[in-house]
C-alpha cells in the first residue's frame, strides 16, 4: 500500500473521525 | 489577475534555506492549542528540546538510521498487509514471538505524556495510529526492561490496577489488536506484541486509570503491563495505540470522544504540537476523505489517493495505480511511500521544475537530491494530493523536502518496490 508519512503530515492538522469513517486534513490548521 | 496571482502563489514555495536548518534554541515553544484546548496533550519530538526524555540540548538525529528504521517499519506494514488471513494467529504459549508478525516500531518520534494509576504516575508514550495496544513497562520487570527516563510503573503501588482474566472477551480480542492471541499465566491474560526490528513487549493485559488532563480521566482502560520489553524504545515508557481495533485508546474512550482525535506534529525539534481527543478546536478549513478499510489490516486507517499535482499540473497517473495497492495514513512512518509508477511521475515532474539546481547523490531511500549550498533561497514546485471525495491537500514546503545538509536536500518521497504493495 502507499503510506502517507509523518513528514508530509507535519504541515497539516490531521483529523481522524473514526465514528464518521473519515480522515481530514487542514493545511493551515497548525499555525 | 488576482486569481492567477493566487494560483501562481500556490504553484510554488520560495524558501529561505537557512529556515531548513534552524539552530535549535534552548527554549521550547509550546503549542497554544495544546495549552488552551480541552482534552489536548502536548506532542513533543522525542529528541527535541521540549522532550522530557532528552537532555537539555536536542540531539541531532542520525538521518540514515531514521530512514533505515523507517524502511523496516514500512516492510513490516507491507508484510502484514500481504499476509493471508488464514495463516494469521497462532496460539503462542511462550514469549518467543515470531519475528514476522507485528509492526516495526520504527523511529517513534512523537511523544505525549499521560498519567497512569492512582496515585497518578506520568509516563511518556509514543503515539501510533499504526497500532492498537497501549502498553508501558511494569515493575518488577520479571524478564527484562529497557532503560526509560521516568520511573517504571509499579502496578502494586496503584489502587486502581487490575489484571484481566484470560477467559475475558478483552483477552480474546488481543489477536486482532496485536496479531497474537492472549495466553494464560495463573488465569491472568498475557499479551505479546512484536515489532519487526526485534523490539517486543510481553506482559499482563490489565485495566488501569488513565489521566489525560485534570478533567479527562478514564477508569478501567485496557492496556499492556509489560514485564518483558526489549528494543528501540529507549527512553520512552511505551506506546499509546491509536489504531481502529476495539482495544485501541480511541475505541475504548469512544463514549466520550466518539473516536475523534486530531493532531499537529511539532514543526521543529524545539516546539510542541498537540494531540486532541474529541472535536474541540478542529480547524474549520478541514477537508475530509472517507476511511477505506484494508482487509488484511483492519486496524489501519485506509485512504484512497486519486491524484497528485505538481506546480498546479495534475500528473498523468492512471487511477488504478493507486487503487490496486490501496493507501493508508500512519503517524509512525516518516517518509511517504508511493506506488512505483506514481513516484516516477512525481520525481520527473519535480526534477523538471528543479532543473536550475544541481543534482547530487541519493541518501538511503531518497533518490532525488539537490546541492543547494550555493543558494540563499530555493523555489520548489507546490505538491498537492487529491483524495477520494474531492479533498485536495496542499503540502507545506516542509512536507516536500527532507534536508540532510545544505549540499543534500532531497525530495521527501520514496517509491514502493512493486506495484502491488
Describe what is shown at a glance.
The complex is a heterodimer of chains A (31) and B (421). Chain A has 31 residues and is mainly beta.
Task: Summarize the structure in words.
- The complex is a heterodimer of chains A (31) and B (421).
- Chain A has 31 residues and is mainly beta.
- Chain A contains one helix and three strands.
- Chain A has one helix spanning 6-9, and strands at 2-4, 13-17, 22-26.
- The mean pLDDT of chain A is 93.
- Chain B has ten helices and 27 strands.
- At the A-B interface, strand 1, helix 1, strand 2 and strand 3 of A face helix 4, strand 12, strand 14, strand 15 and strand 18 of B.
The helix content of chain A, as a percent range, equals 10-25%
Can you give the mean pLDDT of chain B? 87
Proportion of β residues of chain A? Answer: 35-45%
The helix count of chain A comes to 1
Features:
heterodimer; A: 31 residues; mainly beta; two-stranded antiparallel ribbon; 1 helix; 3 strands; 13% helix; flat; B: 421 residues; alpha+beta; 6-stranded mixed beta barrel; 4-stranded antiparallel β-sheet; 10 helices; 32% strand; globular
Helix and strand layout, with pairings?
The complex is a heterodimer of chains A (31) and B (421).
Chain A: E1 2-4, H1 6-9, E2 13-17, E3 22-26
Antiparallel strand pairs in A: 2-3
Chain B: H1 2-11, E1 12-16, H2 17-20, H3 32-36, E2 40-45, H4 63-82, E3 110-116, E4 121-128, E5 135-137, E6 162-163, H5 169-172, H6 174-178, E7 183-185, E8 188-195, E9 199-213, E10 216-230, E11 238-241, H7 249-252, H8 254-257, E12 260-264, E13 273-277, E14 287-290, E15 301-303, E16 305-310, E17 313-314, H9 319-323, E18 327-329, E19 336-338, H10 340-353, E20 359-360, E21 369-370, E22 377-381, E23 383-387, E24 392-394, E25 401-405, E26 408-411, E27 413-415
Parallel strand pairs in B: 4-11, 5-10, 19-27
Antiparallel strand pairs in B: 1-22, 2-3, 2-13, 3-4, 3-9, 5-11, 6-9, 7-8, 8-9, 9-10, 12-13, 15-18, 16-17, 16-23, 20-21, 21-26, 23-24, 25-26
Amino acid at each position: 500500500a502507499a503510506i502517507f508519512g509523518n513528514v508530509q503530515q507535519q504541515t497539516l492538522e490531521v483529523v481522524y473521525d473514526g465514528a464518521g469513517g473519515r480522515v481530514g486534513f487542514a493545511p493551515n490548521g497548525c499555525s | 489577475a488576482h486569481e492567477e496571482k493566487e494560483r501562481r502563489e500556490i504553484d510554488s514555495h520560495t524558501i529561505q534555506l537557512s529556515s531548513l536548518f534552524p539552530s535549535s534554541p534552548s527554549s521550547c515553544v509550546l503549542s497554544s492549542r495544546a495549552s488552551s484546548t480541552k482534552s489536548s496533550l502536548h506532542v513533543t519530538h522525542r529528541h527535541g528540546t521540549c522532550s522530557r526524555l532528552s537532555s537539555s540540548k536536542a540531539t541531532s538525529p542520525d538521518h540514515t538510521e531514521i530512514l533505515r528504521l523507517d524502511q523496516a517499519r514500512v516492510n513490516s506494514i507491507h508484510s502484514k498487509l500481504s499476509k493471508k488471513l488464514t495463516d494469521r494467529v497462532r496460539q503462542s504459549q511462550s514469549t518467543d514471538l515470531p519475528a514476522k508478525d507485528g509492526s516495526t516500531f520504527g523511529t517513534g518520534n512523537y511523544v505525549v505524556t499521560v498519567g497512569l494509576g492512582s496515585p497518578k504516575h506520568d509516563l511518556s508514550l509514543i503515539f501510533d495510529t499504526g497500532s492498537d495496544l497501549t502498553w508501558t513497562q511494569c515493575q518488577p520487570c520479571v524478564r527484562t526492561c529497557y532503560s526509560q527516563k521516568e520511573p517504571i510503573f509499579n502496578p502494586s503501588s496503584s489502587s486502581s490496577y487490575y489484571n484481566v482474566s484470560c477467559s475475558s472477551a478483552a483477552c480474546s480480542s488481543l489477536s486482532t489488536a496485536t496479531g497474537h492471541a492472549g495466553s494464560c499465566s495463573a488465569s491472568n491474560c498475557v499479551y505479546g506484541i512484536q515489532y519487526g526490528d526485534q523490539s517486543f513487549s510481553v506482559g499482563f493485559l490489565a485495566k488501569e486509570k488513565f489521566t489525560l488532563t485534570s478533567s479527562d480521566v478514564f477508569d478501567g482502560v485496557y492496556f499492556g503491563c509489560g514485564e518483558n520489553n526489549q528494543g528501540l524504545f529507549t527512553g520512552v515508557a511505551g506506546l499509546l495505540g491509536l489504531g481502529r481495533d476495539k482495544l485501541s485508546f480511541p475505541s475504548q474512550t469512544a463514549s466520550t470522544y466518539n473516536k475523534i482525535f486530531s493532531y499537529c506534529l511539532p514543526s521543529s525539534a524545539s516546539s510542541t504540537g498537540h494531540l486532541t481527543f474529541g472535536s474541540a478546536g478542529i480547524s474549520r478549513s478541514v477537508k475530509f476523505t472517507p476511511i477505506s478499510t484494508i482487509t488484511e489490516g483492519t486496524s489501519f486507517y485506509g485512504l484512497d489517493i486519486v491524484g497528485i499535482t505538481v506546480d498546479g499540473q495534475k500528473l498523468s497517473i492512471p487511477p488504478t495505480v493507486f487503487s490496486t495497492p490501496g493507501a493508508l495514513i500512519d503517524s509512525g512512518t516518516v517518509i511517504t511511500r508511493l506506488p512505483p509508477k506514481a513516484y516516477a511521475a512525481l520525481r520527473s515532474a519535480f526534477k523538471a521544475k528543479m532543473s536550475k539546481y544541481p543534482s547530487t547523490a541519493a541518501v538511503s531511500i531518497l533518490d532525488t537530491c539537490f546541492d543547494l549550498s550555493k543558494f540563499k533561497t530555493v523555489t520548489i514546485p507546490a505538491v498537492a494530493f487529491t483524495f477520494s471525495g474531492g479533498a485536495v491537500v496542499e503540502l507545506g514546503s516542509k512536507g516536500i523536502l527532507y534536508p540532510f545538509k545544505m549540499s543534500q536536500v532531497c525530495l521527501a518521497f520514496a517509491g514502493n518496490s512493486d506495484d502491488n504493495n
